[in-house]
Design brief:
- By secondary structure, the protein is α/β, with parallel strands linked by helices.
- The protein has one domain: Alpha-Beta Barrel (TIM Barrel).
- The chain contains 10 helices and 10 strands.
- The protein has an 8-stranded parallel barrel, surrounded by 5 helices. The protein has a two-stranded antiparallel ribbon with strand order 1-2.
- The radius of gyration is 19 Å and the shape is globular.
Length: 319
């Protein structure tokens, strides 16, 4: 898989990135550690070298599974983790990073990201200058190689960038969720900031595996997604039916069509999770798909039949 530069750093990432929220188990159902480890190894074997996690995913459990699965190939992979909104005071940033290093069984994290801006999820308001000071210190110490932000608006990225180099933005972004395109994307292009899209398959909707009457198991967070609101979900099903012939034309899955479209967008790379080895290997194939300009325009137009009707709130869930 051909690598891409992360921002202006020396880090090379794979355009398809393995997401590991599910590895933490919390807010997911039916996840087994042994299967997750196999999925991570299958992803690596298929050319995916970048793995995204966070301290909050299962309170460190996701990070621990990555450490277990990939320690023997550490020099060949890129670890991206995140500090949560309740740990943005300088001393708490340092403590959180040290915990993540221990969980990951490594002495450096390639990309360390602010998971949510201060003040979100009932967290304390901490000046971004203070948080960035701690992150710059970690960078100077060699504990982290690059700084990123997640769920930040254009204005919030610009403010953070006043205090240090920001090499990535991690927003929710997919064919069915395109809020980042409104303002933040142009800033990222202008400032050579990589976009690392999460929920790149719209919580699995873009795989086409959820039918019109789908109901999630108790405890699955995806039931709260705005895309599953009745009127939105009806538009989703119509759009999926229009996308299927394009996927068939390329002899690929619906999910890989959506991923291939996404990594063709400016500065954009796609995080995608996997429950098992088969899914991980399948996801990697999206990097090899060649879409024409005509394909991209057709897919874009179909996506807008869903996104044009969604509210302006950038948060994907009604928690």
């Amino acid at each position: 898989m051909e690598k891409r530069q992360l921002g202006t750093s020396e880090i090379q990432i794979s355009p398809i990135i393995m997401g590991t929220w599910q590895a933490g188990k919390r807010m997911w159902v039916g996840i087994e550690d042994a299967e997750t480890v196999k999925a991570m190894r299958a992803a690596f074997d298929a050319g995916i070298t970048t793995f995204d996690t966070a301290e909050v995913y299962g309170e460190g459990h996701s990070e621990q599974i990555i450490g277990k699965a990939l320690s023997d190939v550490r020099s060949q992979v890129i670890y991206a983790s995140k500090v949560f909104a309740n740990h943005l005071k300088p001393d708490l940033v340092i403590e959180a990073c040290d915990r993540s290093l221990k969980n990951l069984n490594t002495d450096y994290i390639d990309l360390y990201q602010i998971h949510w801006p201060a003040g979100t999820w009932n967290s304390e308001l901490v000046p971004i200058a203070e948080t960035m000071e701690a992150l710059n210190k970690l960078k100077e110490q060699g504990k982290i190689r690059a700084i990123g932000v997640s769920n930040f608006s254009r204005a919030q990225i610009a403010e953070a960038a006043q205090y240090g180099r920001i090499d990535s933005l991690q927003p929710p972004y997919s064919l069915f969720w395109r809020w980042v395109e409104k303002e933040a994307m142009s800033y990222c292009v202008e400032n050579n900031i990589s976009i690392i899209a999460y929920s790149s398959l719209a919580q699995g909707i873009l795989t086409g595996k959820f039918g019109p009457e789908h109901k999630f198991a108790e405890g699955d967070h995806r039931a709260k997604s705005k895309l599953f609101i009745k009127e939105n979900y009806a538009r989703v099903q119509i759009a999926l039916n229009k996308l299927r012939p394009i996927a068939d034309r390329h002899q690929i899955s619906l999910g890989n069509l959506a991923l291939a479209w996404l990594i063709c967008q400016p500065q954009t790379n796609a995080i995608v999770g996997a429950r098992n080895a088969e899914q991980a290997a399948e996801n990697a194939k999206a990097a090899e798909v060649k879409l024409s300009d005509g394909d991209l325009k057709e897919i874009d137009a179909i996506g807008r039949t869903v996104t044009d009707y969604i509210d302006d709130n950038p948060v994907m869930w009604n928690f």
